Amino acid sequence: SGGEKQRVAIARALINDPALILADEPTANLDSKIGHEIMRLLRRIAKEQGRSVVIVSHDERIRDIADRVLWLEDGAFKDIVTMATDPVCSMAVERERAVSAERDGETYWFCSRGCREEFLGGLPPDHPTDCHGFPGLVRAATALLSRRSSSATDRHQAAKRSGTSYCIGAPLSAQRRHAMERDLSGKVAIVTGGARGIGAATAEAMAAAGVAVVVTDVLDEEGERMASHLRDGGYTARYEHLDVSDEANWDQVVEKTVAELGGLHVLVNNAGIGTLPDVETETREGWDRLIAINQTGVWLGMKTAAPRMRASGGGSIVNVSSIFGAVGGFGGSIAYHASKGAVRLMTKNAAIRYAKEGIRVNSVHPGFIDTPMIEQVKDTPVEQAILANTPMGRLGTPAEIGAVIAFLASDAASYMTGSEVYVDGGWTAQ
Q1: Measured between alpha carbons, how far apart are the two ends of the chain, in Å?
Q2: Which of 100, 151, 347, 385 is the most exposed place for a label (fewest CB within 10 A)?
């Protein structure tokens, strides 16, 4: 935590007295203050020790410390010293193609005459409505977006052709920042119940976002197969047996994860079972077994993971509850309702407990999802009733839940804690 891994890596490199240090994403997964310190450390190494330092990064703070910055556009490097920032709309502009103005002995470059007039008139630096980009800059700015869709680029180019007024500087910057926030590269996650269903879909979504995923389950064969599937796709993944009702097993899995993968940043408490008995037909044995997995397992997960997340500089816990953690359903499944209602309120309690420690805790409440858990009611009047009472008229897919969980795990949800997110096809809206 606190950038120690980055500092140790730099120290190890210096032991060999190198002429050149190559730092690959040195500020990844660090908060702004610590990331700035790492950047300044690299700057001092270059200036005070006379070494060459090359930084490969999406972090725009690189501009503040580097003598020269290149960006990659259309497969070729472009020297950023030929660029300038419009002081009005904060848009990057090519100096040789931009309009300029002198003030207080300094030269400023602008994307349009409108921005220049705003600047010279001393007006507040709001985004002017007559601020226009140009196609070359559109391509360059788009190249900086890690996940910019071609359709969005086409819309900007179409707007330019049609003469529509728009300011590309700030919106593109915000979208690029949002794409980076959704990126979970370098983080480590444990997903319980990850062998199949929602857990497997969540593991896939996490892996696709750059997470090193530890898939856990009691279904060892299926869990190993899931982890192997992710590795075959080029992702970092492993499988660990985990009975979520066993505290010692939790300690073992979490400690091994931290020791071998370097930390823990995300926990998805997804493991659970479902039963149908109502108040009178449920047994003590059935009740205790379900509560141990669905409710106690979530508590043990948070209890075990939180200290390791704190040591890793913070993290995100996502607890999978259910729509039946908030509504009474059909009057059956009493133990399931009780457990999922408890998960909902444990989430809020833990969110308050860890709010000032950089650990966010949120719950996801799926509706009826096409998973093995629902197999017992497939092609029965119960399934017909489910579909009839779901406004969207269909079952959800595991991937639709996994995408929401990945969002909550990312920095794009940085102001969300204690929230309950319903993904239910409109069920609870009725």
Answers
A1: 45
A2: 151
The model carries a pTM of: 0.60
CA distance linking residue 205 with residue 226, whole number of Å: 13
336 noted as active-site residue? yes
| Per-residue model confidence as pLDDT tens digits over 134-160 | 333 333 333 333 333 344 444 344 433
Q: Which residues contact 142 (CB under 8 A, 6 or more apart)?
A: 148, 153, 172
What local confidence, expressed as pLDDT, does residue 244 receive?
A: 96
Q: Of 86, 40, 87, which is closest to residue 61 (Cα–Cα)?
A: 40
Whether the CA torsion 374, 390, 362, 176 is positive or negative: it is: positive
Contact 350, 302 (CB under 8 A): yes
Say whether 270 sits in a helix, a strand or coil: coil
Classified as helix, coil or strand, 307 is helix
Rounded-to-integer distance, Cα 181 and Cα 177, Å: 6
Task: Please give the distance of CA 309 from its chain centroid, rounded to a whole number.
Answer: 15
The sign one gets for the Cα dihedral 192, 414, 263, 58 is positive
Condensed to tens digits (0 to 9), the pLDDT of residues 87-96 reads 776 566 666 6
Write the DSSP assignment of 217-262 as a string of letters.
Answer: ES-HHHHHHHHHHHHHTT--EEEEE--TT-HHHHHHHHHHHHHHHS
Query: Is 229 in contact with 196 (CB distance < 8 Å)?
Result: no
Catalytic residue among 239, 336, 354, 422: 336
User: Strands 106-110 and 188-191, how do they pair?
Assistant: unpaired
Q: Give the separation between CA 360 and CA 265, rounded to whole angstroms.
A: 10
What torsion do the CA atoms of 136, 140, 145, 146 make, to the nearest 10 degrees? Answer: 120
Q: What angle do CA 418, 423, 428 make, to 5 degrees?
A: 90
